[in-house]
Amino acid sequence: MTDSRDSLGDQQDAALPRRTMARTAKLASLPLGIAGRAVGGWGRRLTGQSAEDVNAVLSAKAAEQLFEVLGTLKGGAMKFGQALSVFEAAVPEEFAAPYRDALTRLQSAAPPMPSRQTRRVLAEQLGRSWTQRFADFDDEPAAAASIGQVHRAVWHDGREVAVKVQYPGADEALRSDLRQLQRFSRLFQALVPGTEVKPLLAELAERMNEELDYRTEADNQRRFARAFSGDDNVFVPKVVASAPKVIVSEWVTGTPYSRIIADGTVEQRNAAGRLLAEFHYSSPARAHLLHSDPHPGNFMLLDDGRLCVIDFGAVANLPDGAPRALGVMMRLALEGKSQDLFELLRAEGFVRPEVGLDADDVYAWLLPLVAPLTGETFHFTRRWAQKQAMRMGDTRNKDFHIGRSLNLPPQWLLIHRVTAGAIGILCQLDAELPVRAIVERWQPGFAD
Questions:
Q1: Residue ranges of the ABC1 atypical kinase-like domain (predicted)?
Q2: Does the domain made of 115-170+208-250 have the CATH classification 3.40.50.1000?
Q3: Which residues are known to be catalytic?
Q4: Of the candidates 143, 244, 268, 412, which lies 20 to 30 Å from 443 by C-alpha distance?
Q5: Facing residues of 151 across strands?
Q6: Is 243 helix (H, G, I), strand (E, B) or coil?
Q7: What is the DSSP letter of 149?
Q8: Rounded CA gap, 102 and 98, in Å?
Q9: Stated pTM of the model
């Protein structure tokens, strides 16, 4: 029989709050807080403070609240924050500055669960004698993820390993968070202007079951590790052991992309960008998979110059590789064949039959997006990303209405979001790289 005091202690120790009402109240505080600060800011303008000063204060406070709420709730809330972080490069600077630090911190920060709770999960998942499988285990977590935390340990054969342990109650919290966030999607749009929040949340909700079962993640990681085994540019840690809520894999030490974004050299930035683009475009051909969680916390630059990729909870299966139609679209846009491009977009479902669009208008909307493929190298900058976001997000522009008239077919949603996320990281890196040569090599349909 379980001691009631132990049960009470377990609840108090819980690293991931599970009470739906409490979590809902915290999430609701974000849009309500924005509204309240907006009213207060209006009052301060009446007293003579400049709009710029007031907006700066409001943005800074909203950013801090964003980190505090999403970071401490973990689960779907933290995952939402991590997903938003890669689109920060496209936000105009006057809005982006306060969010940059808060969103970047979400890539790796979260309060740890107590060691007693961690050990209980390990015993449930790896057996009561789990300690015998390790020569050493550090109770202090080395890193945090949206639904789990990572511990450094030594396997019984002497290998250094990373032990990823899922938070108890992560499934309930993840589902609850995403339901609540979807309810507030319009209000959350104000937190990060220029980002389409609603489809992002819908996709996170659709894929959550895959991420909750670490056995699926372990299988994905094994497939990536096999595909890139011995590669000169990419390293994927091998899985040592796995269970539904625990993964043990090789420990890797490197420079996180978040640090390179913050203070890396030009050489580091360019190398990190080239490796990321190579990994993104080559994975469908080499592994028949697409790593679908592109944020800087999942990438490191190793001392030997290779890219290390971690966290394979969100992965798209592409048994036939990347769709050939994507490469053909890129090529037709570069060749200026607007009518052929329009017919292909219609055939793939981007242009609905009942919508009256002009081929040249659609071509003009798409052309700036293939600018990175026009020369031998392209410099991905925040300014370029911001220009594209403003062009598509300004209701006064023709491009805004063209974009809203286009359709994004379900089978293209993930590829679109992951590519946009990878480009977001390249812009955060301020990297210059030969992206056209990479696309020519790996993207079917482009060089035909």
A1: 105-333
A2: no
A3: 293
A4: 268
A5: 163
A6: strand
A7: E
A8: 7
A9: 0.76
